[in-house]
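Posting for a labmate who doesn't have an account.
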Amino acid sequence: MSPAEIAADVRVLLRLLGGKPRRGSHAQRLARFYAPQADRYDAFRARLLHGREDLIRALDIRPGMRVVELGCGTGGNLEFLAQTMPLETLAGVDLVDLCPPLLAVARRRVAGMGLGNVRVIEADATTWRPERPADRVFLAYALTMMPDWRAVLDNAMAMLAPGGRLGLVDFHLPATGGLGNALWRRWFAHDGVFLSAEHLPALRARCDEARCEERRGPVPYLPGPCAPYYLFVGEKARPGTR
């Protein structure tokens, strides 16, 4: 990396070390935490948020589909989706998040790509729903940052069309994690990321599992330990089949 990129990373790391603000609403805390790092968000987290491209491919998104990303952040996952198909062939893409500084980056990205079928929406993932049912809904490293994550999953399932797919990739606490789970739980909680061993059971209770993998990935500037994460794809049962 160049000296300028390293300096930018240092600024992000200092913000992370300071932790997520503890006062204000969830939306206000997100805005204060991410505003100073929004422009470097994608570059820094590309080395931390593993498995996103694999998730996009596992969702089997096809032309004519309606796609929703909850907790979209800067909209960076559009780049992965664009590698699998021409985005203009989709019926529509809704990018939903609660953090204005990150959404500002997402809007610039969408404008730069010239995509008229992509909407960037500031809304709460526990309540917002599209006008028409979605064929695919996904979250990438977002559920662990949502306080009422069960309500988010319920809402995601409600907006899915029967036979539609829900996909997630996120940090978690594996059953075999032992003492390491306590370390990762405390490490991530400092920045408002709350790892849980309950995500996968909750997903399996809500949809039919199509794919599930538990993995580990390296953490920038932290040699040695690899953080646990999962990739899950489930399908919403059609009426009378579950």
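Reply:
Got it, the structure tokens are right above this. The first strand starts at residue 66 and ends at 70.
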